[in-house]
Amino acid sequence: MQNEMEKNLLKKIAGISGFSLGSAFNLRANGVGVERHSTDQVKIVSKVDKPGIDIYVKANSKGEQVHIPVIVTDTGVNDLVYNDFYIGEGAQVEIIAGCGIHNDGCNPSQHDGIHTFHIRKNANVIYSEKHYGEGNGSGERILNPTTIVYMEENAVCQMDTVQIKGVDSTVRKMDAYVGANAKLIVNEKLMTHGVQTAHSDVTVNLNGADSSVQIVSRSVGKDNSVQVFHPIAVGNTKCRAHIQCDSILMGQAKISSIPEIAANHVDAQIIHEAAIGKINSDQLIKLQTLGLDEEAAEKVIIDGFLK
Amino acid sequence: MLELRHVSFQVTDNKACQEIIKDLSMCIEDDKFVVITGPNGGGKSTLAKLIMGIEKPTGGQILWNGIDITDMSIAKRAKLQIGYAFQQPPRFKGLKVKDLLSIAHGSELAEEKCCSYLTDVGLCSKDYLDRDVDASLSGGEVKRIEIASLLARQDLKLAIFDEPEAGIDLWSFAKLVETFQKLKEQSLKSIILISHQERIMELADEIIVIDNGKVKERGSKAEILPHLMEQFSDNCAFKK
User: What residues does the ABC transporter domain cover (chain B) (predicted)?
Assistant: First the structure.
């Protein structure tokens, strides 16, 4: 049973207050697994050689949900965890991950999650991950997620990652290997404030014929925060890739977008679009003509942009 | 009533001073449907922006129902029930059509009401309610949503439309004329509509011709319309 603070963190990152019947569940708190439930279709087991879990989703299972939230509420925790997902052929599953850190102390609290997905033929995965930090301590809240994705023929994977508030430093890495006719969709939403830093490296290797990837990254940099995006798409066969990075700059924030696209096949179509700039003044004026003051107009624009 | 007293607006570009609006005075009475027309570059859009507060006059005063609004912010003018539809409306990533209409309305707008506003501007509502007001919409679609956002305002006392017909196809234009006709007959107190379209001018109680930053002519449509085209047809030195 969690206390109120833990429940609040769970709500923020996973939209739940705890285990709910019918879905597989693994809660990790302050570096240790504290609660686990498997289902007929989804088995969660501890790793024996290193910290973390293996999640097995049975072939052809439909409509399964897996919640694997992580919370850190003690100051000075440095948690490294390996989670491997084995998604069986033809399975349809929704995985809700996320990490919330509450740090009231003066030592840094850090969670580094290394997630590896093995997605078999015709499987369909929706993965969402929210990162959130809070607490009044001076200790940093650090989250460094690494995601590795192997997708077989006809697999579909949608990854929605959100970091909205309170994470002082993040280095996000993703490597994906996309098989024939498989489709990867990555939606990344990020807001930094204060002196936070966020670095995102995404490399997608399109290895199978007619594979595709769509990456949409939207970010807002406030105050003196710094963001760096480095998306790389490599087309090794007939494939399609579309990368779109949009960022709004506020205050003294700095944002870099460093696209890298490579076509190693004559039928590879790879597109990268990037735009960084202040809020469009016409947007602000339009909302002001509807009666919103500048602050409220800004909020509507940012909330919509990061929705 | 809207009153402009000796309003001027100058811009300085490369140290050269250009006067866009020149000592312009006029009143717009309540319940009037006024069409402002005139040649391109004559100052019509600037005048509309000065009334909404998007630009501030460099001289003169603007009064709205006796209140001096010359230095008032855009949002405060909006709260005094003045509304403005952009000639080139901005787009918003992540803001849905129904969200924009609800913001315009000032509170969550029922889907049925959203639909009726969209129908009024010639859009099939079920296709648009959940779409973002972003680059996926055509220029004409964004323009019509912009007009709908003014229709959704509550208790609007003065509505300013800057060339609402620009970028709108013929079928929708007919629908739009109908909508303005309805607006005229319904609750709105005053409408200022910048237009070059004869069919819209036909709706006007009054037509004001703005040229070179000044009111060149003002009168009923019977007085102005017949010779309007002649006035601006002989300006080109190269015309034979």
Answer: 2-237
